[in-house]
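Intended use. Records such as the Glutamyl-tRNA synthetase entry shown here are meant for training and evaluating sequence-to-structure methods. They are not intended to support clinical decisions.
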Amino acid sequence: MALRARPRREVPAADRGHRPRPFDPEATQAILTGLDWLGLDHDGEVVSQAARADRHAEVALELLESGAAYKCFSSQEEIAAFREKAKEEGRSTLFVSPWRDADPATHPDAPYVVRLKTPLEGETVIEDQVQGRVTIGNDQLDDMILLRSDGTPVYMLAVVVDDHDMGVTHVIRGDDHLNNAARQMGIYRAMGWPLPVYAHIPLIHGPDGKKLSKRHGALGVDEYQKMGYPAAGMRNYLARLGWSHGDDEFFTDAQAKAWFDLDGIGKSPARFDFKKLDNLSGQHIAAAEDAALLQEIEAFRDVTGEPPLTEEQRDGLARAMFCLKERAKTIPELLEKGHFVLAEAPIEPDAKAAKALDPVSRGILASLTPHLQNASWSREDLEEVMARFAEEQGTKFGKLAGPLRAALSGRAVTPSVFDMMLVLGREDSIARIEHAAASGMD
């Protein structure tokens, strides 16, 4: 099966034959980079549509020769006048060219466009895999332009020729292109080519139920990587957006490949929900292999302009990953939790953490370090040492946790104190606690 996902952009008006936007290498590279980050590979080389203009024109001329297309010499002024008169008379403003059946002997020596002959009667039926059977009267379809007056092909022709030549069997795109399918089918039939399977899916809406746009914060794929969403979570969310497999929300790539079919696509617009994206992102971070997550972290730091991890930082994150992955919804959240292994000693607390290091707390930390010197440094032993020390101080361990978090990481929100101490080891943990205990003293 060969698939094509069509970009959801406005198609140039056929009568005007507007040119597509100029080729933009940077925009093209952004698309390819985004696909690469998402892990979505493609078959064959990337081909620019503009590079195949000769092939597109060749098909238009073949249609012209077979009588399925014709030369139209009507000017823009004549077309505008036709529509104005039709409007005044209450008729359809769909342009009907006087050159459709003209004798070639009457053709003037003047610029012309090549138009496809659309049947004047009957219906065009689209057997759409999502929208169902869609019927459009042929009297609602114009004779669309295939070649402009300078001989260059239009998008509507180019995309059909490319799809046929590249063996595309399924065209899955936004339902705003449904009417285009009826017009493009005319080219397929005139050329005797098999029709692809069409599936026109509803557009994505914002939280307010309106078509997703920049005012909703709609972003390019690369921006989601910069925001710290893991590729697996993004793939999961995008696959689930408008498609379902029962009540399954979280699934792997293998499950998505095994489960996906067009029957699972709904007819109603999906709403982009960052809360759901965050939730799935967190589940994929928690389920990720540590080595894969480290690669994702390094790619994130690269695209956000952060320096690469040092060998020591990589080792620290690898040791700490077991206590970082839980409840981290994005890569930045995971890195914030991992600050205790990324920061260089001596650890300086931020404003929130510093509040936990008042003189009383620093005195308690100073008293704690001798108790840690001879601990076996297992979780069980550390918990026992802390519980016994808290009892001696006439308090509970919960009261010690804040100062310890600040001392070990410089942050108020961290993984478990015991997890951090196990990752850091005896020497580093005690050194940080001693530094915090001594801070602020003359």
